[in-house]
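Worked example 2:
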Amino acid sequence: MDADADASHMRRAVELSLRSLGETSPNPNVGCVLVGPGGEVVGEGRTAPAGGPHAEVSALAAAGELARGATAYVTLEPCDHTGRTGPCTQALIAAGVARVVVAVRDPNPVAAGGAQTLRQAGIHVDEGVESEEAHDAMRGWLTAVGRGTPYVIWKFAATLDGRSAAADGTSKWITSPEARADVHRIRAGVDAIIAGIGTVLADDPQLTVRTPEGPAARQPLRVVVEGGSRTPPAAKILDGSAPTFVAAAPEGGRVDLHGMLRHLYDQGVRTALLEGGPTLAGAFLADGLVDRVVAYLAPKLLGAGPAALGAAGISTIAEALTLDVVDLAVIGPDVRLTATVKGA
C-alpha cells in the first residue's frame, strides 16, 4: 500500500464530491475513485440527486469487470442499509473489490457499519485517509446529521465601516459584479436560502441561483421568515421560479427559529444560506444558530446608514462572538472573508 498514492486518489475523490455539493440532500455529497491492481483508475463516481445512484455504484458501473480486485477510495464510509437504493457495501462485495479506503466514518446510525460489513466479507478496509479534506467537503451534511438541524451560513455584504446600505436606504450595489457572481456559486451549494420579511419588502429579491447563461436548473428552497401574513402576493420570492416556504408566526409574534430549522431538516434541508437583513441575522446569532460567516467587504466608506448586523443579544465586549477565519480571498475589487463561529 502506497500512502502517497492513497492520498492522491482520495483527494481526487474529494474533488468529485464537491461537484455534487448542493445536489444530493438529504444524502451526503460523496466521491469515489476505483483503482485497478496495476494502479490505473478504472472508474469514478459521485453521488447523484436523491433516489439516484450513490458514488460507489456510479464508479462500479463505470469500471464494469475492471472493478474486480480493485481498490475503492470513498470519502464517506459506504452505506450499509437499504433506502431508495440498496447498500453500497453489497455492491462493492458483489463487484469483487479487494480493498476499500475510507476518509470519514458515517455518523448516521441508520447507514453506518459499512466498514465492519466489508471486513466480514474479506475486504481490506483502511480508514482516515485525507479525512480533514473530506470532512471539509461534507461539513454541512456531517454537522446537520450530527444534531438534526441544517448547517447555517450567514452571508452579508458591507462597506469597510460595516454599513449594509447608505443613510438614504440605497444598497445597490455595495459590492462588485464579481462578488455577486460568487454569491450565486455559494447559493448553488446549499439546500435553502433564508431571508426575513424586511428584506422581502425592502428589496423584493428573487433569491434564486443564476449563471451567466441564465437561471440554474436546480434551485434551492426559498424561505421567508415573517411575523404575520405580510409577504405580498406579487413578491418575486413567490414567482414560482423556485420552491418557497413561508415561516410565519402569529401577528406580532416571533418565529421559533429552532423549530423552523428542525422543520427544514425534516424536509431534507442539510445546508442553508442566511441572506436576511441585520434584524434576522442578529436573531440567528443570538440563538446560536450560525455556523459559518461569509462577509463580502467593499473598499468603500459611508459613515452612516444601517449596520450589517442588528441586535444579537450582546451587551459587553466580553460577550462578543469570536470567529475563526478560515479563508481570505480577493473577489474583483472586494474581499471575501470566511470564518466559523467558535463553539458552533
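The longest strand covers residues 151-159. DSSP finds ten helices and 15 strands in the chain.
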